[in-house]
Automatic annotation (TrEMBL):
PROSITE patterns: SSD. The chain crosses the membrane at residues 12-34, 46-68, 107-123, 296-314, 321-342, 348-368, 396-418, 424-447. SUPFAM superfamilies: Multidrug efflux transporter AcrB transmembrane domain (SSF82866). It is found in: Cell membrane. Residues 320-446 form the SSD domain. It comes from the Bacteria. InterPro entries: MMPL_dom (IPR004869), Mycobact_MmpL (IPR050545), SSD (IPR000731). The keyword Ribosomal protein does not apply. It is a multi-pass membrane protein. It comes from Dethiobacter alkaliphilus AHT 1. Pfam families: MMPL. This is Hydrophobe/amphiphile efflux-3 HAE3.
Length: 461
């Protein structure tokens, strides 16, 4: 029956193309796996799993429902039963005209796109990185308002710690070094360190007219309540903590201060004593740096993986480079757009390179597959491309617009980090559509030198 043939042809012709597009998208997302931050790597794994599930759902559930509908819920004796919905002739005509215009100006269009890409990469170098967690939140959040009021009253809520270890920590010489370090760092970094707290400082404030010696310190520690003593020194009395109350700093400033502090400790080292800068601020600085660094590395890895995967599948350099090249341009466009809009990279937008490659490659592969299918029917390159864009361009455009609609919900979030992620995502999906419908057609026409019908669509075994 007719509907049986329709579904067989759907699986036969569209199945391999969609499968290849899915594999290429997964390879693009795989670049997220190299992130040193587990949450980014897990994000990539979640995207990969979701994509595989979506493919199986479309392959099995969607087509099965359509098959059941056509076979069991349509009166095939009626003339107009189960007829296909009317085609969007206006959209098809518009896409055909757009393609003809693009092909007639192919050199100009590609030159402009390349120029924008180069400019975008330069603009990207001037895009800042926002790592202050407080800026990601709604600024009128009661908890945020209260912590800022508390900070105004107390002067500081952020801390760093210097962990000092030594086998004979209570030796007179070592205690003198700890005491000197306590006041020394405060004098060395007066604009950053508001105050310091250490066991030697507590000793000086509590004990009158006593010299800082091993015996006096031991007696002082013995008299301290255990709960208070544990705040300053361990049970073996070989490790103590110097707490630094520091001003509120941006992540880059925190990292600079930590590096300067480590250098100060190295310049004032004492044999037998090992100081280490530690604390939550150190962990936060490293975590945020890891979240926002490696953007270009992840993007290049994603491009490389997709290219190598397509080269392995197609055994053709042309069919491997054509889907990847237009998407590579978007990375530059995205950076340039963020520069123009004054947006900074955040832990979320730093992952956009891999997402662009994953999402955009799907569009370009489906267009390329349909192009070679039309070529196999004997059409010329230009005719094949016009037919391709006018036909398959419609579902690609619909897919892109529905994705844009879904991500548009982020624009209404109270959290700045989500709003900016939504803006950047909408821009990049729009760029993906432009690269597929405007950049790919002239590119493939210029690179495809085979003018015969022997070039056929790939149908992997």
């Amino acid at each position: 029956m007719r509907f049986n043939r329709i579904f067989r042809n759907t699986y036969k012709y569209m199945g391999p193309s969609v499968l290849i597009a899915m594999v290429a998208t997964i390879l693009g997302f795989t670049a997220l796996f190299i992130s040193p931050v587990p949450m980014i790597a897990d994000f990539g794994k979640t995207l990969t799993l979701g994509l595989a599930v979506s493919f199986l759902a479309a392959l099995i559930i969607l087509t099965t429902n359509l098959y059941i509908r056509d076979k069991y819920f349509c009166d095939h004796t009626a003339a107009k039963a189960c007829q296909l919905p009317p085609e969007n002739k206006w959209l098809e005509t518009m896409l055909a005209k757009l393609t003809k215009l693009v092909l007639s100006k192919k050199f100009l269009i590609l030159t402009i796109c390349l120029a924008i890409t180069v400019w975008g990469f330069f603009g990207d170098t001037n895009v800042g990185v926002q790592t202050d967690i407080e800026t990601f939140m709604p600024q009128d959040t009661p908890e945020l308002v209260e912590i800022r009021e508390f900070r105004d009253l107390m002067g500081s809520t952020d801390q760093l710690a210097i962990m000092v270890q030594g086998s004979d920590l209570l030796d007179d010489k070592n205690l003198a070094w700890v005491d000197t370090l306590t006041t020394g760092v405060e004098n060395q970094f007066p604009e950053i360190i508001d105050s310091t707290v250490s066991i030697t400082g507590l000793f000086g404030e509590t004990v009158d007219n006593e010299t800082l010696t091993k015996q006096n310190m031991s007696d002082f520690l013995d008299d301290l309540p255990e709960t208070q003593r544990k705040l300053f020194i361990d049970e073996d009395r070989q490790t103590t903590i110097i707490t630094l109350n520091i001003a509120r700093l941006e992540n880059d400033s925190v990292k600079t201060f930590i590096n300067d502090l480590n250098q100060y400790l190295a310049d004032n080292e004492l044999q037998g004593i090992e100081p280490t800068v530690t604390g939550q601020a150190v962990i936060d600085a490293e975590m945020l740096s890891a979240l926002t660094s490696g953007r270009m590395e992840m993007s290049l890895l994603g491009i490389g993986l997709v290219f190598m995967g397509l080269l392995f599948i197609y055994r053709s350099f042309l069919k491997a480079i054509v889907p990847v090249f237009p998407i590579s341009l978007i990375i530059g466009w995205s950076g340039g757009a963020m520069y123009l809009l004054g947006l900074d990279y955040t832990p979320l937008t730093a992952t956009m390179g891999a997402l662009i490659i994953g999402i955009g490659t799907e569009f370009t592969i489906l267009l390329m597959e349909r192009y070679f299918e039309e070529k196999a029917k004997g059409a010329s390159k230009e005719e094949a491309m016009v037919t391709t864009v006018s036909k398959i361009g419609q579902p690609i455009l619909a897919s892109g617009l529905t994705t844009i609609g879904g991500f548009s919900a982020l624009l209404f979030s109270d959290f700045l980090i989500l709003r900016e992620f939504g803006v950047v995502t909408l821009l990049n999906i729009t760029f993906c559509l432009i690269s597929a419908l405007v950049v790919l057609p002239p590119l493939i026409i210029m690179l495809d030198r085979n003018k015969t019908k022997s070039v056929s669509a790939v149908n992997p075994a």
